[in-house]
Amino acid sequence: MSLDDSFSGWRPLQLASEGPRYLALVNALEQDIADGRLTDGDRLPAHRDLARQLGLSVGTVSKAYQEAEQRGIVSGHVGQGTFVRRRTITRSEAAARHEPVNLGLNVPAEGNETQILAALFSEIARERDLGPLLRYHPHAGISKHREVIAASLSDSSFTVEPAQLFLCNGAQHAIDIALRLIVKSGDSILVDALTYSGFKAIAVASHLNLVPVEMDKEGLRPDALKQACRESGARVLYCMPTLQSPTARTMSIARRRRIAELAEELDLAVIEDDVYGFFFPERPVPIASLAPGRTFYVTSYSKCVAPGFRLGTLTVPTAYTGQAELLLHASAWFVAPMISEAAVRLIESGDLEELLRERRRQALERYRVFLEVFPEASKLQFPAFYAWLPLPPKWSPDQFAAAARGCGIFVTPSIASAVSDGNPGAVRICLGAPKDLVELSEVLQTLREILGRHPLNVVSVA
After folding, report:
1. Domain HTH gntR-type, which positions (predicted)?
2. Cα-to-chain-centroid distance, residue 153
3. Fewer CB in 10 Å around end: N or C, the chain?
4. CA-CA distances (angstroms) from residue 453 to 256, 257, 395, 409, 444?
5. What is the pLDDT of residues 404-461, one digit of tens each?
């Protein structure tokens, strides 16, 4: 008797008493393989023989073998029989066994920021008496800090006046202040049809109505803006002309000029969120330079230095400076002077520019990896720490997010950014969280594998 013949007499030690009998047989088979009672290449009993031994119908055994083959634990060969085979673990299953990877949170890749900031804070503590930084300060921020930061934000296309610049606890705080300057509860705000999720949170908390404006490859469409404004009566626009979140689209200078013209024509106040302008060696011309009398301009150091480095800026039209200072008083009194002192030293020492160069290099490297795995994605996007991934028609964004989550990968579901119903046909993938390019490639390959399978099958497995 051959070795294969001896194993053809296999029968399970026991079958579960509950549930379908064919599943009980498959689970018993899988358990015996895991326990070593069956190994790769062992031949299983013929359908009819096993059915007779276990008191089951031939159809039940056939269905069990079919299910086992779908699970990848056996293989059937016509005229030869059914054999145990070593199961190949997919990337999806392997990823699920490790720590979750968050591709839904837009964070910078790890770089030299920790060492730079550690040295900087040590220098501040060593070189000067900390007492002055621990006192009360003007609500808008320390005057010298505002001057240095305003100068660093200014260029040939846009001049930021220190008197119009207010230091805030990150961009989220700055956006909230801007809204409180120009809207009241119940007002309508014009936004991209897919907009920044943090802005949606502020709108909900402030009881504001969001009016979606249709988009094209550059972001919001001027004709759609004009129509939405007239139909809704909204008089405030929130937009991200540079690397719009979540779609990573960037407006041309012609588009920015047209938006500025429409702001004048339609009497719109504009909140311009420019937290990602630093990815460009030469920042695109902001709408604030084209319509300075009606634009509230927001930037942030949290996006380029570190998420915990909570310092944002809000530049307001001259008419709003007094009210802006009052709102800073009411909401935060002032930003932590230690943080703004650190920002000024980063600027003056050149360390900030060094860090920005590193961020641009990291973004380029990671975006190249993204395009290697997903060559169908837009190559027109400027490299950043996130990208817009088109989905095959069979997948909805929410299905894909659920399937990825089942494999230990978090991506942003469409509900986070969508302002109206509909399938955007894509999801945002953040590229900064994986520790290196190898891990990033592996995680993205898992997402590619998920997209190659059927949504219902993947979600049910997860």
Report:
1. 19-87
2. 26
3. N
4. 41, 44, 10, 16, 15
5. 988 899 998 778 899 988 788 899 999 999 999 999 999 999 999 999 887 765 543 3
Helix or strand run (H / E) with residue 84: strand 81-84
Per DSSP, the three-state class of 14 is coil
pTM to 2 decimal places: 0.78
- How far is the C-alpha of 402 from the C-alpha of 399, rounded, in Å? 5
Q: Specify the CATH number of the domain 3-88.
A: 1.10.10.10
Determine the Cα–Cα distance for residues 419 and 166; give it in Å rounded to an integer.
29
CATH code of domain 95-107+353-461: 3.90.1150.10
CA atoms within 13 A on the CB side of 216: 9
Specify the DSSP class assigned to residue 438: H
Q: Tokens at residue 269, please?
A: 């106040």
339 token code pair: 């943080």
Assigned architecture for domain 129-348:
3-Layer(aba) Sandwich (3.40)
- Residues 393/398/400/405 CA torsion (nearest 10 deg): 180
